[in-house]
Each structure stands twice: as structure tokens, then as C-alpha cells.
Amino acid sequence: MKLKLKKPVLPKRKEHDSFARSRMHHIITVWGFLALTLISGGITLNAYIGNSRQAKKLYDQLLATDKAGGNVEQSLYNLRSYMYHHMNTTIGTPTGVQPPIQLKGTYDRLVLAESARATNAKATNANLYNTAQHVCEAQIPDGLSGRGRVPCITEYVTKNAQSETVNPVPDSLYKFDFISPYWSVDTAGIGMIVTSILLGIFAYQSLTYRRALQHLKMSS
Asked: Among 61, 118, 168, 199, which one is least packed by beta carbons within 10 Å?
């Protein structure tokens, strides 16, 4: 009686069976990382757009405060601090005016203040000589025809005379331009890194699966 020997399992068959068992695992892994990438990308995009919207909100609050004559310094600080610590917050105007942050209310108030100062200076200068005479008479009561008080009067007028020229308002008092960083440590910035890592893992897993599939086809 002859014994029948079992044929050994071919390595190709073993490789095929091994891939078949792990195929579902590969598919779940690839699609799982794709889902995570999309979720992370959605959160990142939402935060990225949210940064811009919040900056625009603070900018509108600044303009409203400036128009109402409120605490402009605090509103400026809020906007500047937010823009310096968050990406995608650069402010731009529809007309492209530069610098983009120009406080018209502040400018108008500064112009009025400078105009009032010049008007007061004219009034002060008009009475300055008489004031100088009274002051110098008190300091130098004696003197022939007041000649001894002339240097005193001249010095007083020169020292206390005020400029009557209306000076232009410096740009630094009402024009501002804050630059946001290219990347920031916030939800949008960290999300970009996480999404990039997940995208890289997804690409690697997808490429590995494709290569394994091609290898199986070639060996079958």
C-alpha cells in the first residue's frame, strides 16, 4: 500500500492568504486616516476662517468706539494683541487704503484740538505784552520811563510766546497697521501641523496598500 504524500503549500499561496486576511485591516487603516485627516482639516479651516472673522469683529468695534469717542486705546490694544497672536488676521479695506486702520474720529478730534490751541495761542499772544509789562513792573518797580524793564519784557515775551500755526496731525496718532504672523500657536496653527501629519500617514498607508496589491497581482 502506497502512502500519499500531501503536497506542500506553496509560498505564493501563503502570501495570498496572508494578504487576504490583512486586506480589511489595511482598508480600515487607510480610510480611518483619511477620515481623521478630513476632520482635522475641517476643524483647522474653521479656526483659520474664525481668526479672520474675530479680527474683523474687533476692527469694527474699534471703529465704533472711535466714532463714539470712547476708549480707543483699549480697543486698539484688543485688536493689536489678537492680531499679533493669531494667523490670518491681517486687516484690509475694500478701497485698498494704506495703512488700513485709520481712525477718522480720532483724527477729527485732534484737528479740532489743534485748531483750538492755535486760536488760544493768538488770544494769549495778543495780551502777552501787557502781561509782560505788569510782571516786569512788579519785578523792577524803579527805572527811568521803564527803560530798565525792556530786557525783562523782551525776555518774558520771547519765553512765553506761543505758536499760532496750526500744525498737521501726525500719522502715528490715527493711522495704524498691525501685521499678523504667518503661523501662530492657536487652533488654526496647531491644526495645520496635525492635519499635515495625518495627511502624510494617510499617503504612506495608501501607498503601502497599493504596493502590496500590485505585488500580489504580479505574484499570482
From this structure: 168
157 C-beta neighbours (distance < 10 Å), count: 15
Residues of the chain with pLDDT under 70: 1-23, 93-97, 143-146, 216-220
Cell triple for residue 131? 502781561
What tens digit of pLDDT does each residue of 12-38 get?
Answer: 555 555 556 666 777 888 899 999 999
Q: Please tell me the predicted confidence (pLDDT) of residue 144.
A: 53
- Output the pLDDT for position 1: 47
| Residue 185 near residue 84 (C-beta atoms within 8 A) | no
pLDDT at residue 11, as a whole number: 52
Listed as own residue / partner, the contacts of 28-37 with beta carbons closer than 8 Å and 24 or more positions apart are 29/205, 30/202, 30/205, 30/206, 30/209, 33/198, 33/201, 33/202, 33/205, 34/202, 36/198, 36/202, 37/195, 37/198, 37/199, 37/202
Q: What is d(CA 4, CA 133) in angstroms, rounded to the nearest whole number?
A: 139
Distance CA 149, CA 65 (A): 53
Please report, as a single letter, which amino acid is at residue 26. Answer: H
